[in-house]
Design a protein that fits this description.
- This protein has 2 domains: 39 residues, no CATH class; 297 residues, TIM Barrel.
- 40% of the residues lie in helices and 12% in strands.
- It has 15 helices and 12 strands.
- Strands 4-11-10-9-8-7-6-5 form an 8-stranded parallel β-sheet. The chain has a two-stranded antiparallel sheet with strand order 1-12. It has a two-stranded antiparallel sheet with strand order 2-3.
- The longest helix is centred in the C-terminal third of the chain and has 21 residues.
- It is globular, with a radius of gyration of 20 Å.
- The two termini are 20 Å apart.
- The structure holds flavin mononucleotide.
- Flavin mononucleotide binds next to helix 4.
Length: 386
């Protein structure tokens, strides 16, 4: 089921109709309706992440929903993240023994069972009372790599205890260097071996929906767990940030360093020159700059310039076939942002777990069709330009 604007609108309308008392008795129960219209009542019923999106949208209050859905300006970049997936077609292969599929990999010293990871997303208390702990417990089942946001509601130590698996820490730069040191030490002590510096935020993106609903948020219910115990305020953001931050981080943490938000070959080359350990192709899910460039379209030039550094990617990944395409174009792993939040808003921990297991099953399915038994068998030859 593709989530085109038309189909999404139709589904919302029909779901609204199904919810009216007048029609409730005449229409089949929502959970048994046509799959494209169905509203799963339990996480395990969800057939794809779009059904979980529909449940989350129905359940969450508008400020929470728009916190997730918000995009910069007119949404051209968030839409491009999806539409560029169609620029590539998958070349399937026949008569390969695909009875055993192995999606495991080694990434910056971590042994992972799957290249499907959880992107850093802050303030999850807005979405569910268990917040990042629910996401971490869901990740623990298959030991999906999770990246904890600087502005997570829960402190990184508690998330690490719940995740029981590989955990990286995402850092927003601050002009308060003592605060950055405090956050880095906290993440190291919690067991994170890699810090992900987000470099796409010299200013805040123009997210109009988020701004519109922000005054309705009950801030007394929110929490910034990683800042607790710090004597100063939670001041993040530094418009003066430049490449000198790499050397500063090297001097101030033993963690490996990944830069998140690289979308050009030029900046990937600079990552190599400055000796970072890896990078994430990301436009923050179309929430920062309205560039109109989808991340999958940026991936080839970044991989070509990255000199063998591990390249991860996020933005618009909703299907196993999307993940497959990124792997074929040279990404080592793929992070999910909003889909995990849809799962969280819909059903809490089981919802996030369902998102992860759906994407895993879809990836394994397309690997079987493509005759690729291991990740290293997925290559540019697996694709053709549309
Ligand atoms: C609600 C929300 C909050 C986010 N918070 C952060 C954050 O704290 N740090 C960060 O580096 N990226 C953050 N991101 C960006 C994600 O890490 C990721 O880049 C993006 O969501 C991927 O696109 P997708 O949502 O289409 O999967 C956030 C994204 C969303 C949707």
């Amino acid at each position: 089921m593709r989530d085109t604007p038309g189909s999404a609108g139709r589904r919302r309308l029909l779901q609204g109709l199904l919810g009216t008392p007048l029609l409730a008795g005449l229409w089949p129960a929502a959970g048994r309706a046509h799959p494209a219209l169905a509203i799963p009542e339990r996480a395990a019923q969800a057939l794809d992440v779009f059904q979980l999106k529909a449940v989350a949208q129905a359940k969450l209050a508008p400020p929470a929903w728009h916190f997730i859905a918000a995009h910069a300006d007119d949404g051209k970049t968030v839409a491009a993240n999806r539409s560029v997936m169609d620029d590539w077609l998958i070349r399937v292969r026949r008569l390969v023994d695909v009875s055993h599929i192995d999606t495991s990999l080694e990434l910056l010293g971590e042994r992972l069972a799957t290249p499907i990871c959880i992107a850093p997303v802050g303030n999850q208390l807005l979405i569910h009372p268990e917040a990042e702990l629910a996401s971490a417990r869901a990740a623990s089942r298959r030991r999906n790599l999770m990246i904890v946001s600087t502005v997570s509601s829960m402190p990184v130590e508690e998330i690490a205890a719940a995740a029981k698996g590989p955990l990286w820490f995402q850092l927003y730069a601050s002009r308060d260097t003592a605060l950055m040191r405090f956050l880095l030490q906290r993440a190291e002590r919690a067991g994170c071996r890699t810090v992900v510096l987000t470099v796409d935020s010299p200013t805040r993106g123009n997210r109009e929906a988020e701004r519109w609903f922000a005054p309705q948020i009950d801030r007394s219910r929110l929490r910034l767990g990683n800042f607790e115990g710090y004597p100063g305020g939670p001041r993040i953001g530094d418009p003066a940030l430049d490449w000198e931050i790499v050397a500063w981080l090297r001097d101030n943490t033993r963690m490996q360093l990944v830069l998140k938000g690289i979308v050009t070959g030029e900046d990937a080359e600079r990552c190599v020159r400055h000796g970072v350990d890896g990078l994430i192709v990301s436009n923050h899910g179309g929430r920062q700059e309205e560039s109109g460039r989808g991340t999958l379209a940026c991936l080839p030039e970044v991989v070509a310039a990255a000199g063998g550094l591990p390249v991860l990617i996020d933005g618009g990944f909703r299907r196993g076939t999307d993940v497959f395409k990124a792997l074929a174009l040279g990404a080592r792993a793929v992070c999910l942002g909003r889909p995990c939040l849809w799962g969280l808003g819909a059903f809490g921990q089981p919802g996030v777990a369902r998102v992860l297991s759906l994407l895993q099953a879809e990836l394994e399915r397309i690997m079987r069709f493509a005759g690729t038994r291991r990740l290293d068998e997925i290559s540019p030859a697996s694709l053709e330009r549309a």
